[in-house]
Amino acid sequence: MGALKIGLQLYTVRDSAEKDFEGTLRAVAAMNYEGVEFAGYGGKSAEELKALLTELGLTAIGSHISLEQLENNLEGEIEYLKTIGARYGVLPYLQENDRGSDEKWLALIEKLERFGEAFRKEGLIFGYHNHDFEFTEKLDGNYVFDTIYEKVSPERLQVEMDIGWVQYSGLDPLAYIAKYKGRLPLLHLKDYRKGEPGEQIDTVELGQGDLDLPSIIASAEEADVEWIIVEQDRCANPPLEAVKTSREWLSENYKS
Fold this sequence. Notes:
By secondary structure, this protein is of the alpha/beta class. The chain is 43% helix and 18% strand. The strands form three sheets. An eight-stranded parallel barrel has the order 1-2-3-4-5-8-9-12, surrounded by five helices. A two-stranded antiparallel sheet has the order 6-7. Strands 10-11 form a two-stranded antiparallel sheet. Keywords: Isomerase.
């Protein structure tokens, strides 16, 4: 059990990154984030991005890669990750037309096997990032989330657990972290306040929502998580200000 490393999913600051990708990375590095997880590369070549990350002292954790990109440019995505020194490629989300039936989930599982094998052969790690629908839909009598990991081998698929969505779905986040010990290198810390039924999830800065973050972080250490990754879907405050607040909360409340 080692100290957790602290990263940021750059989707959180997507508006800033779209206007000034390099400036956004510089701001994130100045906040003492140790690494970043990408959701797009700001139009930079892999070589350019590698040089910038080296200059800033930021680790490339990995990248969120859409199903369409994985299907149409798998080799290119893998090569880009290798060049920037990243270890993880993660499928972050499924559109509604890619899920919702046993047939669609089974087809996805076949794809996850294929993608994961391609990553494994190149020395990289493939993962899947959950939302809430993996806990509202079932396959083979279990939540889809669990069935996916039962059917795809750990060598081909690791867990990137979004702990906010786990709790939002009414499940015990500490139990789920413990359940996937040894297969859970990446944990997304997404704090939120649960509103009225039917409302969108209200994501907030760390420490301002419903999650028992100290217990979650302690459980992550016990489960051999490598990276805890800050992510906020929508920010009431300016996103760069929000992720700075979250990083400061971690500095004050987590001593590695």
